């Protein structure tokens, strides 16, 4: 049975956190909020508990987990950071930054997928930090969703995916950032972004002047992942979703689909929504991509609950946090970028004559993300 306990996200009630800590210590699973998304937590030093995480999510066992710590002593207990890294990390931790480092033997193979490295971060969320402290062990925690589905930014998303598969959900309300942490691979003096997130390459390069951005950060799949989000399909709704080549193509595609009588919904910015006749799910403003990032995963779930058989989504500028937004969107769309309606219908397996008109007979409807 899954238990849900509501907690204050800024000053969590001690009894709820202690209850969660007892579950972690006993080898159970606790879903909890971080500043990025909800995590599905287990004792990172217990291989059998880690296997429960994989089983609950339906996650491939070669996709390593991120270990969450609440102190630099906790970092040193699971990894071997080079001395020069500690000062920059103090600038970014606690925060949405994960580092991939040589592991210590205390971390079981189940957590690292048998790799010699381990991904570690210190979350900037009071509930997460206190849960780690009370548990007295590092916590391995991928996102608390069914594998491949959009990551959870609200407790209701966790319940939707994992009811009956997790022992406890600590409901701390909506998460702050809405996309997962930035992941850095640290190898000797070389620092590479392998998954973009809330900390942007522009910000990180101030402390890591030779910072590199991997091709994986732009959505290219890795043969063998060293961190989450590098190989498998992620963040995807169950229905076809297509990214338009640009904003003008998006508007034209929507018009053509409407003229052909194909029901669809458009995920787009507030600015672009004014030019769309079909139903829209507004992600936020093009001028505030942190707003877009925060709304993104919830919007994908809203889209999945809609009756339209397919969706179109607007591309965004890849500077700043836009790189993280586009990384998630590319994976949600399977990497496909479309330029014409025929391609959408062909790849979506949709016939333009079998769906109710959504064009001239349908008025614009904005759906709140």
From TrEMBL:
ATP binds at residues 59, 63, 117, 143, 151, 195, 235. Keywords: ATP-binding, Cytoplasm, Nucleotide-binding, Nucleotidyltransferase, Transferase, tRNA processing. GO terms for molecular function: ATP binding; double-stranded RNA binding; L-threonylcarbamoyladenylate synthase; tRNA binding. Its EC number is 2.7.7.87. GO terms for biological process: regulation of translational fidelity; tRNA processing. Its main location: cytoplasm. It is an enzyme of class 2 (transferase). This is Threonylcarbamoyl-AMP synthase. It comes from Candidatus Marsarchaeota G2 archaeon ECH_B_2.
């Amino acid at each position: 049975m899954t238990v849900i306990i509501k907690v204050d996200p800024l000053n969590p009630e001690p009894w709820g956190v202690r209850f969660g800590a007892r579950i972690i210590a006993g080898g159970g699973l606790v879903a909890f909020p971080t500043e990025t998304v909800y995590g599905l937590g287990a004792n990172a030093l217990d291989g059998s508990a880690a296997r429960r995480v994989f089983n609950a999510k339906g996650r491939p066992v070669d996709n390593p987990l991120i270990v969450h710590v609440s102190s630099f002593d906790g970092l040193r207990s699971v990894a071997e950071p080079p001395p020069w890294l500690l000062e920059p990390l103090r600038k970014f931790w606690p925060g949405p930054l994960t580092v991939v480092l040589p592991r210590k033997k205390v971390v079981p193979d189940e957590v690292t997928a048998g790799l010699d490295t381990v991904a570690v971060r210190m979350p900037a969320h009071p509930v997460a930090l206190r849960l780690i402290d009370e548990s007295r062990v590092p916590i391995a925690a991928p996102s608390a969703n069914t594998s491949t589905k959009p990551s959870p930014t609200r407790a209701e998303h966790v319940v939707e995916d994992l009811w009956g598969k997790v022992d406890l959900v600590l409901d701390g309300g909506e998460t702050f950032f809405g996309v997962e942490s930035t992941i850095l691979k640290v190898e000797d003096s070389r620092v590479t972004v392998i998954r973009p997130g809330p900390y942007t390459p522009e910000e990180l390069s101030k402390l890591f002047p030779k910072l590199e951005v991997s091709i994986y950060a732009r959505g290219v799949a890795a043969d063998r992942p060293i961190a989450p989000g590098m190989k498998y399909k992620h963040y995807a709704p169950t229905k076809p979703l297509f990214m338009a080549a640009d904003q003008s193509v998006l508007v034209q595609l929507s018009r053509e689909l409407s003229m052909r009588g194909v029901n669809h919904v458009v995920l787009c910015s507030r600015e672009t929504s004014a030019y769309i006749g079909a139903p829209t799910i507004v992600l936020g403003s093009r001028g505030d991509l942190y707003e877009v990032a925060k709304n993104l995963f919830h919007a994908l779930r809203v889209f999945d609950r809609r009756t339209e058989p397919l969706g179109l989504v607007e591309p965004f500028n890849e500077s700043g946090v836009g790189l993280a937004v586009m990384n998630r969107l590319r994976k949600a769309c399977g990497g496909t970028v479309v330029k014409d309606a025929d391609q959408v219908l062909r790849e979506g397996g949709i016939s333009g004559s079998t769906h109710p008109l959504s064009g001239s007979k349908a008025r614009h409807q904005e759906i709140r993300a």
